[in-house]
Amino acid sequence: MSPAEAAIRIEELTKELNTYNYQYYVLANPTISDYDFDLKLKELDALEQQFPQFLDPDSPTQKVGGDITQRFDTVRHRWPMLSLSNTYSEQELRDFDNRVRKAIGNDFEYVCELKFDGLSISITYENGVLKRAVTRGDGVQGDDVTANVRTIKSIPNRLKPNGYPDLFEIRGEIFMHRAAFQRLNNERIENGEMAYANPRNFAAGTIKLQDSAEVARRPLDCFLYFLYSNERNRLFSNHWDSLQAVKAWGFHVSEHMALCSSIDEVLAFIAKWEQGRYDLSYDIDGIVIKVNDYGQQEELGFTAKSPRWAISYKYKAEQAETKFLSVSYQVGRTGAVTPVANLSPVLLAGTTVKRASLHNANEIARLDLREGDMVFVEKGGEIIPKITAVNLLKRKPESQPISYPLTCPECGTSLVRKPGEAVHYCPNDEGCPPQIVGRMQHFIGRKAMDIEGMGDETIETFFKQGLLHNITDIYSLKDKQETLVRLDRFGQKSIENMLAGIEKSKEKPFEKVLFALGIRYVGETIAKKLASHFKNMDALAAASKEEIESVYEIGERIAESVTEYFAKDVHREQLERLRQHGLHLAIEEKTNERLGDALSGKTFVISGVFEHFSREELTSLIESHGGKLLSSISGKLDYLVAGDKMGPSKLAKAEKLKVPIISEQELLSMIN
Ligand code: AMP
Ligand code: ZN
After folding, report:
1. Do both 84 and 215 map to the same domain?
2. Best of 288, 302, 311 for a ligand 1 pocket test (most atoms within 8 Å of beta carbon)
3. What CATH number should be reported for the domain holding residue 620?
C-alpha cells in the first residue's frame, strides 16, 4: 500500500470507528458487532504502525472509548480505568503467554474469570461506607453515578468491620440478568416504549438515568473483580487472595474462577465456558486472564491503554448464514408496526432460527436488505436473533430493495411516522383488529384489571363473534349470557367464573384503570404518578399538555400522548360508560396517607443527594403534608429543596428567579 492510499484508508477507518464508538458509548446502541469493530480497530492499528507519520494522537486506537455525558458530574479516577487488550484466537493467546514468560520467567499463575457483559464501575469506600461510584468514561475520568449505584441491592452501602483498608476502590461490572431483561423489555414493548437490544444496553441505559427511583425499580446486579488501595500490596500478595477477601467483606464475587498454571489450563477453561455460558443467567462475552501475583503484575507493567499482565479472550457471537425470504409486519396494541424477517430455517446456538427481528424501517435501510439475499444472523444476549449483515458476494444483480408498506397490513389505513421517531404507526386505533384485540387483552391483563376467568384467547374469540368491540363491552357481557352459552368451549361454570371476575374487577383502584386504558407511554409507574397528581379522570382529561408536563418526572412525549388520547370523542364516551358500570375513576383519599397540611398549596422541586432521606422519601414526605412536586424550576415555584451535588445550572436558575432554596433540615422544620 502506498502512503497516499494508507492515508485515505486511515482517515476512513478513523471516521467509521469514531461513529461506532459514539453509537456504542453515548447512545448505548451499537450498530456493528464487537468482532467486526475489533477487526477494523486492528486494521487501523496495523496501518498506523506501518505509517507512523499518519498517527493522530486522537485516533480511536489511542483511547479507551468515552461515555461521559453532561448530565452527571465528571470525576477523575484515582487509578485510571484501563481497557484490556483482547483477542479471538488461541494463537494470540499463546503469543501473550510467551511475552509474559519472557518478562517474568516460568514461575507464575493465571487467574481466569468470566468476562461479564455489562458496564464497568469503580466504587470508592471510605471507612467501610460507599462514597462514590463512577463509570469508566474515557478511562481517566467518568460520570458520577453514585445515587444510582446505591440502589443496586448486591452492592453494600456500608460494610461490617472486617479488616478492609480505610480507603479503597473496588471495580466490577454492572449487568442485568437475562430473565429480568426479557420481562422488563416486554413491558416496554407493550407500553410502546423503546425496547433495548440486549441486557447490556438496558443496564447501561439504566445507570445513566437521572431518576434514581426508576433505577431502583430495575433489577441490576454487579460482580466485583478488581481491588485498588494504597494498602493493597501490604494486605495481599496476589489478585486471587484479594478477591477472596473482597467476598468476605460482603461483595458479590463470581464463583466461576480458576487458578491456572499453564496456558493449556487457560484454554481448557475457555473451552468449558464456550458452551457453559448458555447455562448462566446472565451474558458473558469472553474470559479474562490475569497474572495473579501483584509483584509480577508490576514487573510486566502497562502499555498506554492496557495492562501487560492481562488479556481478554472474546467468544465470537455465534453466527450463521441463511436465506432471507420475506418480511412480515406485525401490528401491536399501540399500533406500532414491527417488521420481522422470515428466514430459511438454520441452526444457531443450539436452536433452529426462522425469524429475525428488524426493529424498524431504519434497520432495513441500514442493512440495505433485498429479497432473496443471503444474510448473516447472530445471537448474542438477544431473545430474537438479529441480522448483522448481508452477504453481498451472493447478491443477485436483479434483486430489489424492500419497500416499506405505506398502509397497515391489517386494516389498510395509511401508516404515519412522527418526526424523530423510527417506528411507523397505524393511526386507526378504533378500527384496526390487532389494536382492538390487543387493547382489550391489555385491559384484562394481570397488571391492569386482572380479570379472572378471561384470557387472551377468550378476547379473540369474542371479538370474532362480534361480542366485544371495545373495553366497555366487557362489562355488558353479563347481558349476553344466552349468546355466551351457545358458544362452543364455554360451559356454564366457566361463564359464571368469568362474569364474577368481571364484576370483581370493578373494585380496582383508579391507577389500575388508568393503566388498563393502554394509553401509549403510560406504563404502570406513569399511571401511578398521574393518578396521584390529578386524583381523578376528569381532572386528567381536562389538563393541558403543559399541566401534565409540569408533574414531577413526566416528559413531553407522555404529556402529548395523554392529551391526544383524551381529545378523542370515542375515548371520552368509553370513559363515560366505564363510569356508569361503576369503575373507579378517582382515587380514594386515604386519610392515613395525609400526615398534615403544613405544605398545603406549596410547590417544590428536589435536586441533589440528601443525607437523611432518599429522593423518593422526600417526595412522599412533601406529598403527605399537602405539598406538590414540580419537574422544573420556574418563577411559580415556591421552594427548591437542595441537597449535595446539585447541578450548577439548576442553582443558577433558582437564584436568578429568586426561588427560595432550602435544605433538607429546613424542609423538616417547615413540617414540624
Ligand atoms: P474491553 O471493553 O473489551 O476493552 O474489555 C475490558 C472490559 O471488560 C473492562 O473494562 C470491564 O468492564 C470488562 N470486564 C468484564 N468482566 C471482567 C473481569 N472479570 N475482569 C476484568 N474486566 C472485566
Ligand atoms: Zn391498522
Report:
1. yes
2. 288
3. 3.40.50.10190
- How far from the centroid of its chain's Cα atoms is residue 336's Cα? 20
- Classify residue 400: in a domain, yes or no: no
Average pLDDT over residues 137-155: 89
Regarding the beta carbon of 180 and ligand 1, being less than 6 Å apart is answered: no
The answer to whether the CB of 290 is under 6 A from ligand 1 is no
Q: Are residues 204 and 267 in the same domain?
A: yes
pLDDT value at 235 more than 60: yes
The one-letter amino acid at 470: N
Contact of 384 with 356, CB cutoff 8 Å: yes
The residues carrying an active-site annotation are 115
Q: Which residues of 295-310 are buried (b: 16+ CB within 10 A; e: fewer)?
A: ebbebbeeeeebbbbb
pLDDT (tens digit per residue) in 447-487: 899 999 999 999 999 999 999 999 999 999 999 888 888 88
**180 and 289, same structural domain?**
yes
Which of 612, 625, 86 is closest to 313 using CA atoms?
86
Q: What is the pLDDT of residues 481-494, one digit of tens each?
A: 888 888 877 888 88
Q: Are 156 and 301 in a shared domain? A: yes
Is residue 390 included in any domain, yes or no?
no
Give yes or no: residues 640 and 533 share one domain.
no
Same domain for 441 and 481, yes or no, is: yes
Contact 376, 387 (CB under 8 A): yes
Which residue among 271, 289, 314 closes a domain? Answer: 314
Measured from the CB, is residue 84 less than 6 Å from ligand 1?
yes
Ligand 1 midpoint to CA 212 (Å): 25
Cβ 317 vs Cβ 34: under 8 Å? yes
In tens, the pLDDT along 359-405 reads: 888 889 889 999 899 999 987 655 678 898 898 888 888 888 999 99
* Domain end point (choices 291, 314, 337): 314
How far away, in angstroms, is 285 Cα from ligand 1 center?
9
CATH number, position 176: 3.30.470.30
449: exposed, middle or buried (C-beta count within 10 Å: 0-12, 13-18, 19+)?
buried
Q: How far is CA 121 from CA 209, 381, 441, in A?
A: 15, 21, 41
Residue 257 lies in a domain: yes
In this prediction, residue 70 has a pLDDT band, given cuts at 50, 70 and 90, of very low
Whether 543 shows a pLDDT value over 50: the answer reads: yes
Q: Is 552 annotated as a binding residue?
A: no
User: Domain count of the chain?
Assistant: 3
Q: What is the pTM of this model?
A: 0.58
Ligand nearest the Cα atom of residue 77: 1
Cα(611)–Cα(643) distance, rounded to whole angstroms? Answer: 8
| Of 22 and 299, more confident | 299
Residue 586 DSSP symbol: B
Q: Is the CB of 243 under 6 A from ligand 1?
A: no
Q: What's the pLDDT tens digit per position in 580-593?
A: 999 999 988 654 46
Q: Based on the number of CB atoms within 10 Å of its own CB, is 533 exposed (0-12), middle (13-18) or buried (19 or more)?
A: buried
* Domain assignment of residue 133, yes or no: yes
Residue 251, domain extent: 74-314
Do residues 345 and 353 touch, judged by C-beta distance below 8 A? yes
